[in-house]
Structure formats: structure tokens, C-alpha cells
Design goal:
mainly alpha, 6 helices, about 0% strand
Length: about 170
């Protein structure tokens, strides 16, 4: 990098020379650290972006060392992030498996019980509950369809939910 900071070079020319000289080395280094060539390219691109932002302030004698440090630190951060993601995936898988194995049948039984209770509700409470919770109509739209006021719909929903809560807790 003897010509890197030569007074006759523009900033762009000097950076282009730095990039040309260091990019392949840094990609090899990052690949060794991460084990992933594509990720290594991304890391080196981030390092080069930082180098461009701070190019005027870089130590002319240790620009390469600075870049290697940035690549090493960024690679370590990527590896830590990858480990956290893997831990989260493992935890999610374990939670899902536990849920599938133990709670699925319980959940289905509760849903069937709630549906049976809902079907036994008196009219028009049963119809109001179906329109609002199964067909996802607003209170106003359910009221228009049934020819009643939105307040009446709200009272029927309150009644249905109270009956469901009481029956489910038995």
C-alpha cells in the first residue's frame, strides 16, 4: 500500500486501491471466521463502507490492521447473532413440540366444549355471537343484518360471554 496515500491520488483513487488490494484478503479472513463466503462478503462490504466513511481519519500506516479489526469484530457479532437465532429456533421448536404433544388435545376439547355451549345459547344471543365471533362482523353490521340496535348486540354478546365463562369454569 505504498501508493495508497500518495499526494497525487484523489480520495476515490486511494480508496479504490485500498479496496482492490484488501477486499480479497478480507473476504478470505471473514470466510475463515464465519464459515460462510456470502456472509463474509457482506461483512467485508460493511467494513469497506466504514473505511470510506472514516477514510480521511484513518492512520495511513495501519489502515490494513484497522480493516482486519473491523472484519473480525463484525464477524464475531454475526456469529453471536447466529447463535442467538439458533437458540431462539431451538426454544420455539421445543415449545411447539411440547404444545403439540400435551396441549393440543386439551385445546381441542376446550374448543369443542365452548362451541357446544355456544350452540345451546338462546336466540337471538346464539345468532349474535355467531355473527360477531365466527363471521367477524362489527356490532353495527350485525345489528343492521338483524334489524336491532348495536347496543342490543352488545348486550347479547355480554350475555353470551358470561354464560360461556360460567359454563367453562364448571
Amino acid at each position: 500500500m505504498i501508493l495508497l496515500f500518495h499526494k497525487n491520488h484523489t480520495k476515490e483513487e486511494a480508496f479504490k486501491q485500498l479496496f482492490t488490494e484488501m477486499y480479497p484478503r478480507l473476504v478470505r479472513y471473514a470466510t475463515q471466521l464465519t464459515g460462510d463466503r456470502e456472509e463474509a462478503r457482506d461483512i467485508v462490504s460493511e467494513a469497506m463502507e466504514q473505511a470510506w466513511k472514516h477514510f480521511d481519519r484513518l492512520d495511513k500506516n495501519d489502515c490494513g490492521g484497522w480493516l482486519y479489526t473491523i472484519v473480525r469484530n463484525t464477524s464475531l457479532n454475526h456469529l453471536k447473532h447466529r447463535m442467538v437465532e439458533q437458540d431462539n429456533l431451538t426454544a420455539l421448536y421445543e415449545a411447539t413440540q411440547a404444545d403439540v404433544e400435551s396441549n393440543y388435545k386439551e385445546h381441542e376439547a376446550l374448543l369443542q366444549k365452548a362451541e357446544a355451549i355456544a350452540h345451546r345459547l338462546p336466540e337471538p344471543t346464539c345468532t349474535v355471537l355467531r355473527l360477531c365471533y365466527y363471521e367477524h362482523l362489527t356490532y353495527r353490521k350485525a345489528a343492521l343484518r338483524l334489524g336491532i340496535s348495536p347496543d342490543t348486540v352488545k348486550k347479547h354478546i355480554s350475555k353470551a360471554l358470561r354464560i360461556l365463562r360460567e359454563a367453562m369454569n364448571k
